[in-house]
Amino acid sequence: MVTRKSASKRPAAKAARPAAPSETKPATAPKRAAKTAPAMPRTAAPMPAVAARAPSPATAAPATAAPTGEARYRWIAHAAYLRAERRGFAPGKEVDDWLAAEAEFRAVYGVR
After folding, report:
1. Using CA atoms, how far apart are residues 60 and 62, in angstroms rounded to an integer?
2. How far is Cα 9 from Cα 11, in angstroms, rounded to an integer?
3. Is residue 61's pLDDT more than 70?
4. CB 83 within 8 A of CB 97
5. Residues whose CB is less than 8 angstroms from the CB of residue 102 and which lie 6 or more positions away in sequence, other chains included
6. In sequence order, which ranges of 1-112 are alpha helices (DSSP H)?
7. How many helices (H) and strands (E) does the chain have?
8. End-to-end CA distance of the chain
9. CA angle (91, 93, 98) in 5-degree steps
10. Nearest to 64 by CA among 110, 112, 104, 102
11. Distance (Å, rounded) from C-alpha 99 to C-alpha 84?
12. How far apart are CA 84 and CA 79, in angstroms?
């Protein structure tokens, strides 16, 4: 058998309470100022000078690893070509160009 719940057993509807002033929203929101970066002070103190120390040759490592094998050969060949081009490809100085390019490679990569 199905019975109906009586109206007296239903929970009473909650009475609407007035909202507190802090909970109400204004009709129009105030305009916000555009965000800007903070201004730098006009009398900024100068940065202290820091003496740069050169690393000792024993502990200094090259910034990048030196190319080896084929990459080293191509680097030196390209440097030798650029040297020959600068001197107008005059014959008889090819070996000097190659040796100078090898010396440049050793200077750039710190290879002995």
Report:
1. 7
2. 6
3. no
4. yes
5. 76
6. 70-86, 94-109
7. 2, 0
8. 103
9. 130
10. 110
11. 12
12. 9
The pair of three-digit structure tokens given for residue 72, joined into one six-digit string: 């080293």
Tell me the pLDDT of the chain averaged across its residues.
72
The residue that leads in pLDDT, 13 or 112, is 112
User: Helix 94-109 and helix 70-86: axis angle, to 10°?
Assistant: 120
Q: Report how far Cα 111 is from the mean position of its chain's Cα atoms.
A: 30
CB 84 within 8 A of CB 94: yes
Distance CA(15)–CA(42), nearest Å, equals 61
Tokens linked to 8:
């007296």
Environment class of 97 (CB within 10 Å of its CB; exposed 0-12, middle 13-18, buried 19+): buried
Q: Distances in Å between the alpha carbon of 66 and those of 36, 56, 72, 73, 111?
A: 47, 19, 8, 12, 7
Which residues, 6 or more positions from 62, have their beta carbon under 8 angstroms from its beta carbon? Answer: 109, 110
